[in-house]
Design brief:
With 136 residues, this protein is mainly α. It has one domain (14-119): Cytochrome c-like domain (Cytochrome Bc1 Complex, Chain D, domain 2). The chain is 24% helix and 3% strand. The protein is built from four helices and two strands. The protein is globular and about 45 Å long. The model is unreliable at 127-136 (pLDDT under 50).
Length: 136
């Protein structure tokens, strides 16, 4: 899909992916920032790098597995006129294709990045910068 191109596996765009509105969240997507009605229910396209380890999924965390995300695109979308044109007809994925896609997504896991202490949470890794004296 053109929304997840290499090398970062995102196009950094904002898209409406046909998620049902959650009346409790009152989450209108990018429109809340831009005040542009055409941005209603548009959310940033995430990178697929390390996606198999980055759950929960969706802008609001409603999906707890990659399989549930794929089921959304295959069966559970609520497409309307605002839904991205790439997704209005849902994604007709077979179980075999979902298996292939899942296997591919596993290949985007970068174990060396994940184990690199330079990218660890603050206080958990090795500092790569020297202390800075702000008084001189």
């Amino acid at each position: 899909m053109s929304c997840h191109p290499e090398p970062m596996f995102t196009d950094y765009s904002y898209r409406n992916i046909g998620m049902p509105i959650d009346p409790f969240l009152k989450d209108w997507g990018r429109m809340k920032i831009t005040n542009d009605p055409t941005d209603s229910l548009k959310f940033k396209v995430p990178s697929l790098r390390n996606v198999m380890l980055s759950f929960p999924y969706g802008h609001d965390g409603r999906f707890f597995s990659v399989m549930s995300v794929m089921e959304h695109y295959r069966k559970n979308m609520v497409p309307d006129s605002r839904t991205d044109s790439l997704l209005r007809n849902r994604l007709p994925l077979s179980n075999f294709e979902i298996g292939q896609l899942t296997a591919f997504l596993h290949t985007l896991t970068d174990s060396s990045f994940l184990k690199n202490p330079n990218f660890a949470a603050p206080g958990k890794g090795i500092s790569t910068t020297a202390p800075v004296d702000i008084h001189n």
